[in-house]
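Repro:
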Amino acid sequence: MNAEELITKIMEYYQVHTLSDLSKKLGVGQPAISKWKTNNSINTIKKRCRELGIYQDIFEKDINTKNIQTIVSMQNSTNANVVHGDMGDADKKQNIEFDSIPQLVIADLNNLFKLAIQNNKEDILIDELDDFIYQTKKKLR
């Protein structure tokens, strides 16, 4: 999901039809929202949604979140079927071979999740990983 789609989703949430009206709801200037769109500022939008207490309503736990959690929780498995996520392929299944993921990477992810859970920042870690995965897929295609 890109910034333009997120802004549309927030407009639907607040039932407004213009960026000017949305800017009043979000407590930011209309030029700021236009800049979010232009720069695809997803993290800025997420931060503002957290500040307004609407994060869960806008960013429902999606399939990617389940993917990340499944990979970490199944780190000792050899293979697992995981639902493939963010690019609109929600119905496709992808076979993940854990032998192809370096154990150091899996251990690092596990340690990151432990730290995030201890500091009550699991959502932030998942958001960052989602963004990283999305951007990396674009580069690898």
